[in-house]
Inverse folding.
């Protein structure tokens, strides 16, 4: 389920980026004033991107916790010469 959400999020980000690029490109030609819409789309892209990156950071943090060596804290490991 989580992988499906990530995949949908990636496609959504790409679609929003394309729509935003079209709006920015066509605005001067057609004399549209859609600055608030492009700003909103940029924020949505940022939030979705943060969700995707945040999930990866959280997964990396869990992996580090499970492979954490307690000898590093206690100093019980033997010094190699």
């Amino acid at each position: 389920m989580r992988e499906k959400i990530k995949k949908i999020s990636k496609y959504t980000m790409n679609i929003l980026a394309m729509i935003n690029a079209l709006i920015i490109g066509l605005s001067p030609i057609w004399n549209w004033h859609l600055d608030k819409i492009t700003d909103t789309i940029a924020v949505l892209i940022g939030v979705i991107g943060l969700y995707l990156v945040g999930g990866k950071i959280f997964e990396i943090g869990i992996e580090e916790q499970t492979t954490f060596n307690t000898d590093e804290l206690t100093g019980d490991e033997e010094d190699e010469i």
